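>> Question from a student workshop board

For tomorrow's exercise we were told to take the sequence and the ligand below, predict the bound structure, and bring the output to class. My setup keeps failing. Could a helper post the expected result so I can at least see what it should look like? The ligand is flavin-adenine dinucleotide.
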Amino acid sequence: MFPADAPAADRAAPGAPPEERPDLMVVGLGPAGASAAAAAASAGCRVLAVDRRRRIGEPVQCAEFVSSAFSIEDFSWEGIATQRIVRMVTAVQAERPRVSEDFRGRMICRSAFDQALARRAAAAGAHIRLGVAVCEVRADGGVRLSSGEFIRPRALVGADGPRSRVGAAIGQSNRQLVAARQFTVGLRQPYEATDIFLSSAYPGGYAWLFPKGSAANLGVGVDFHRRDRLKSLLRDLHARLAAEARVQAAPPSSTTGGLIPVGGRLRAIGALGAVSALLAGDAAGLTHPVTGAGIEAAVYSGVLAGRAVASWLAGHGNALQEYENDLSDLYDPAYARALGRRRELRRGFGRGVSAAEALWRGWIASPEYWADAAGPSPEVAARPPRNPLMA
Ligand SMILES: Cc1cc2nc3c(=O)[nH]c(=O)nc-3n(C[C@H](O)[C@H](O)[C@H](O)COP(=O)(O)OP(=O)(O)OC[C@H]3O[C@@H](n4cnc5c(N)ncnc54)[C@H](O)[C@@H]3O)c2cc1C
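>> Workshop helper replied:
Here is what the output should look like for this input. Compare the format with yours to find the bug.
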């Protein structure tokens, strides 16, 4: 399925500007793409990375929470981490909220985070172009840009989010999506927990209130085909929390939203003619099917993808398959559990189990989420995920 060897003789055509014939073209400069570009450029590849946005990371389409297990080598969180999170509080339907002390982490300024990662990629030598969209990915691996240019890379990394063009070109598309809507509200008092709201009013998703200093991200996610409800659901939740004197009643700011893949991991490697194509981050379906968290997996998969391309270009024919195997080892066990819980949740409704019970069992803070005969014990499963870059 893959070009057996890195085509060593197939360097840039004499006289062609280098960026028309890069070793690697990265599509998308979110955390996955910037990490892939940095890793490949650090390994000596000539990298061209493009994003259709004019400013990296803006507008922010994220609730901005990362777990305390998340670490990046040589990365300064100064100016990026906005506050610590010490617990999770889960409200199921109208029941009394349950407190879990296990889910620590930090809130980050996502735009500053994405921009810092892109600066690392540029510092490593990647050529970055903003405000340029990929309009077409051809079956032979050629890429047409919105600027009219045509790029012929030796390898492609699709880090272009949930609806990846590179993914579509290799027959890998996210089919189950949650649609989300979020805005920023003022908080009435300082807060250090992530609040999760589980309700049958949020089918396939949940609502959240994640604090960042004097403000908070308030959002709702639901199955894609119910997305027309999002506006009123979020408005109602805001009104409720304002009535409870938890958030300011003043009109919220910065309304945003986005799509979250929840159908599990896709095959992350493919070939377009002689061009190797790899997917990373959301493009590879690497968001947790229950929580929707994907920042960490985007960074880790991006680094691994960039390294795999460099290794393949250096003549290691198995490098791409090893990338696929690494992703499988890292994410398949946790995502299989999460997908199972999503399925059970759907079956749970109307089968003698109360909606509240079904919702709670399907959520990561409940012991039932982790309990099964075959899977790892809750103690093992609850350990923070291994950082593949520190292995
Ligand atoms: C509302 C919401 C809240 C979330 N909250 C959290 C959270 O709190 N914690 C967490 O861990 N995860 C969260 N996520 C998920 C997280 O944001 C994603 O998993 C993460 O952004 C994935 O990174 P990525 O680099 O794969 O993709 P993205 O960050 O989506 O980056 C893809 C980039 O590709 C670019 N692009 C797309 N198409 C093209 C094209 N044709 N040409 C050029 N450029 C293109 C886009 O402009 C974008 O910059 C949330 C998601 C949403 C929608």
